[in-house]
Amino acid sequence: MRACIDIGGTKVAASLNDGKDLQLLARRSEPTAKTGANDALARQVIRLVDDACVAIGISPASVRQAGVSSCGPFVLNQGRIEVAAPNICGGIAGPARGLPNDWMTALLESPLLERFDQVRVENDCVAALAAERRWGALQDVDHCAYVTWSTGIGMGLCVDGRLLRGKNGNAGHAGHMFVSDNDQALCGCGNIGDVEALVAGNAIARRYGSDAATLLGKAASGDAGARQLVDELCRVMGRALYNLTTTLDLQRISLGGSVFSHHRDYLLPRLQAQVEAHFPALTAGCELVAAGLGEQVGDYAALALLD
Amino acid sequence: MRACIDIGGTKVAASLNDGKDLQLLARRSEPTAKTGANDALARQVIRLVDDACVAIGISPASVRQAGVSSCGPFVLNQGRIEVAAPNICGGIAGPARGLPNDWMTALLESPLLERFDQVRVENDCVAALAAERRWGALQDVDHCAYVTWSTGIGMGLCVDGRLLRGKNGNAGHAGHMFVSDNDQALCGCGNIGDVEALVAGNAIARRYGSDAATLLGKAASGDAGARQLVDELCRVMGRALYNLTTTLDLQRISLGGSVFSHHRDYLLPRLQAQVEAHFPALTAGCELVAAGLGEQVGDYAALALLD
């Protein structure tokens, strides 16, 4: 048995997998630990795994391997990954956010390595990309990306058949790139006018006073005003996807996330048109597709990190 | 002896290297071949290498290995690299450019493999990056980029210790990304308002009626009007460098090229400030430096591709 762990800003989930099929067993989920010392999150993860073991009647000590898909960004401390996410760490978010801790980071890899023999931590979008490459829409595609268009925007990147990690495992934070001069939108990261600030789910609600599903539903059923707003969202998101393609010479981009998934038939051709509108020598061979694992891509992300 | 070949839109150069030091021997250079059949460029390269061999009194047949640094973009034909550059191929550039051929591509790797046993072709900026990693400012840096700010804008990228190539070897065409809404600048690639269209050397001349060296010279000596224009150039170029950093989680970016090199002391802190103004978790550990190989980075690019 191996442990599959999914860490988000809101909740943490742990489950077990027997290494023979894709079943996730004895799934346990709790609100993300944010009080006490800054190893509280890692302790919570270990406790959830141990609880799952007890639930299916195996010895916790028999689980020696863990795949961890976590929100970021990460920092490295003596080579070990810690989480420096502003929705978990009060010391980063500042007093205005009212988090019940003053952590600058949440420890992660180091305490887990005391519990497990083998630990692989990746950014959640890198892990989702690994899942799409193993079981989804990116199988046998050496130059590809997984992009989640959800509450935020995240990306996992693969070039020449290898996942990109970067100096702290933060490659793929390309939702925070700038593609326009719009300076009326503030991102959670502090940027003014980056892609996430302009088109992420929470940005749509803030900018247009309508949740993304409602706005996209209106556009899909022909409302002219809604179509104009969604065209602008697609222009910004399309530019981000084009920028990725021209930077990395990609073959295929798989898209998921709540904003995209609910209206993918409406969005996909509009995004593809944005990409193809530029530099054919680089974009002609780049195809946008919906995530093959659909809404389950997050569930399989941690599992994809295990051999 | 090995062959080092440098292919640009204007000229082609070939030289020899004995594999023991960095000396480039018997350098031959000619205007890039653009007439006849579309293997003319490859034939020219082979002839220049053979001429160089004769000049130093060795048998051309003894040179079995070639490193080729070439302008792009590339396309693959049956797995072999061909050059699809609009400044070489009349079939791409269209009749308005008046090139004396109708090539859709110039053959490259395939004819060279008939002449040499071992051929390694890379985009010129990828090759320059390889040179900076071996002998320049990017030694022992696993997450890095080389950026040339010259007549055009080109980039070579390295993540997790590996050069990025992409589906056709075109990774690093990030000078063609969009970072602003300016729609008053047309790029050679057809894009309106991409980074190259806004800040490359030829764009500066076109937009401001002054060559880049003159404009930067004025800014460096305190001219307020020139400073304002250069600040805008740095904002655009700084955003491109920031986008690269947040996409790839880089440690160091080495800059070269004629626009940058002549006023690097003026430009470097302004570009660094643009990068550091955003998302500290990703940019704090990313340093901008001038190319360690200085103006010679192009000379060593092809050599860096040889073992």
The total of helices of chain A stands at 12
The CATH architecture assignment of the largest domain in chain A turns out to be: 2-Layer Sandwich
What is the domain total for the residues of chain A? 2
- Range of strand content of chain A: 15-25%
Gross geometry of chain A:
globular
Query: Level of helix content of chain A?
Result: 25-40%
Helix and strand topology:
Two copies of one chain form a homodimer.
Chain A: E1 2-7, E2 11-17, E3 25-31, H1 40-55, E4 65-70, E5 74-77, E6 80-83, H2 90-93, E7 106-107, H3 109-115, E8 118-123, H4 124-135, E9 144-149, E10 153-159, E11 162-163, H5 195-199, H6 201-208, H7 212-220, H8 224-248, E12 252-256, H9 258-262, H10 264-276, H11 280-283, E13 287-290, H12 297-301
Parallel strand pairs in A: 1-4, 4-8, 9-12, 12-13
Antiparallel strand pairs in A: 1-2, 2-3, 5-6, 6-7, 9-10, 10-11
Helix pairs in contact in A: 1-3, 7-8, 8-10
